[in-house]
Amino acid sequence: MNVVALAAAEQQAQGSLLTLILFLAIPFVFFYLLIWRPQQQQQRRREQMLKSLKRGDRVVTIGGIHGEITGIKDDTLTLRIAEKVEVRVNRSGVSYVKGKEEA
After folding, report:
1. Is residue 67 packed enough to be buried (19+ CB in 10 Å), middle (13-18) or exposed (0-12)?
2. What is the domain count for the chain?
3. d(Cα 78, Cα 87) in Å, to the nearest integer?
4. Ramachandran region of residue 64, left (φ > 0), alpha (ψ -120 to 50) or beta?
5. Same domain, 79 and 39
6. Is residue 102 a part of any domain in this protein?
7. Cβ pair 66, 79 in contact under 8 A
8. CB 95 within 8 A of CB 102
9. pLDDT (tens digit, 9 = 90+) per residue, 14-72?
């Protein structure tokens, strides 16, 4: 009788350990699939967009300035924002490249 009670207690302890592991793993999987992974994908797309900038691209900066890239030097872009008006911005300051249909 004592052995049966001991075996039942051991079975219950293993079940509660498995339940604890599941309760810890489910939120981790949830956060990975809904937060971390999409954020990493978005970061990769942004890095690719910044690397592919070229002369003539029409861009919008993070500050909302619209312009056309007239020069690229290392990490600095020269944008023409009006006739005879050019500004220098960091490459990381570009929010997005305007598509051909938006130009």
Report:
1. buried
2. 2
3. 6
4. left
5. no
6. no
7. no
8. no
9. 667 778 888 888 988 888 889 999 999 999 999 999 999 999 999 999 999 999 999 99
What are the phi and psi torsion angles at 75 (to 5°)?
Answer: -105, 15
The model's pTM: 0.68
Q: Report d(CA 93, CA 60) in Å as an integer.
A: 9
Residue 80 lies inside a defined structural domain of this protein = yes
Collapsing DSSP states into helix, strand and coil, what is residue 87? strand
Are 73 and 91 contained in the same domain? yes
- Domain hosting residue 6, numbered range: 1-52
User: Which secondary-structure segment (H or E) carries 12?
Assistant: helix 2-31
Q: For residue 94, give every residue at least 6 positions away whose Cβ sits within 8 Å of its Cβ, in sequence order, or none.
A: 49, 50, 53, 59, 60, 61, 62, 77
Spatial separation of the C-alpha atoms in residues 86 and 67, rounded to whole Å: 9
